[in-house]
Design brief:
alpha/beta; 4-stranded parallel β-sheet; 3-stranded antiparallel β-sheet; 9 strands; about 50% helix; globular
Length: about 350
Amino acid sequence: MSHKKFVITVMTIVILFVVGGTSFIYYEDPMWMYGHNHTYNDVQNVIDERQQKPNAMHFQPFNYDTLLVGSSRSTYINQNDFNGMNVFNFSASNLSVREYDPFIEFAQKENGKDFDRVIIGLDFFKTSKSESSTILNLDSYIKPMDERFYHIKSLLSFNLLVFSISNYQMSKKDVSAKERTYNRYNVADAMRVDSEVTAMQTEEKIEKFREEFYGEKYDYNPNYKQILLNLKEKYPNTEFIIFTTPISTPLFQELVNQDLYPYYERWLTEVIDVFGGVYNFMYPNSVTNDITNYFDGHHFYPEVGTLIAHRIDGTNAGVPEDFGQYITTDNLDTHLDFVKSAEAKLKNRIK
């Protein structure tokens, strides 16, 4: 083979590989820029929700009356389960209370109008100084979207090719093989695990929270209430609906064991002071007592998210009576007595 033929052959192979790779990435759309849906891309990896969801909001039609914002726990709530509301779930992994504002601000800009309501999922462990002091924004995710060759760069990414292949394989089997995956309509699913794995992962999460979040390192952020107040005041035309995320009872018990219950009470009190009320799901009840409702004692399965949605939208369809109570200043003391009683009963049962 002559040198010229060799060069032509190599260039042809390279071009075919690049064209094939870019076409496949477009076909799978792992960064949610194009919106097409088919059998082989309906199970999507979580690459970076802070980029994927803004991409979908910016490059595809976006018109909603309600925004849901929260951490990875809230990602498992199906945005279509809220009756009477057109909801977009803008929750993302490890979301800080400091990120609620930039998330709402960006979504409102893309929506072109104020949201009628914003539903916020609050996590107790995010009340510490270490988890709620750093001021964060979405600038590093938003700015690249306006670059001239943003789409082309994504199509030429080898990493996205790898994710596209994974998406294709999962979609072909129609199964979630990751801790969290999405369909093409921003609805998350979780990989199912058996009871033994659940128990093991729950113990691991308890240990992690004991060491990283609940132990001596925990220090309640005295500015937490002001952060929430600033958020409410910035969006005066929007109704805020607040709920607490329901961790499993063993994880809640660890909170109590680490002497953090007074901060739990302070947290609920401050949230009520700012917003007038809160749907509290984070206490021992028939849902949180059953660890099979979680895959790690920390993240609940989507079925629990459906119960949360139905409690919030007022239909209460299929929701156990003891799961989720709307708390205001009028019934806060009564509710806290109920939580203490439920905790005491569990301790006696363990003994």
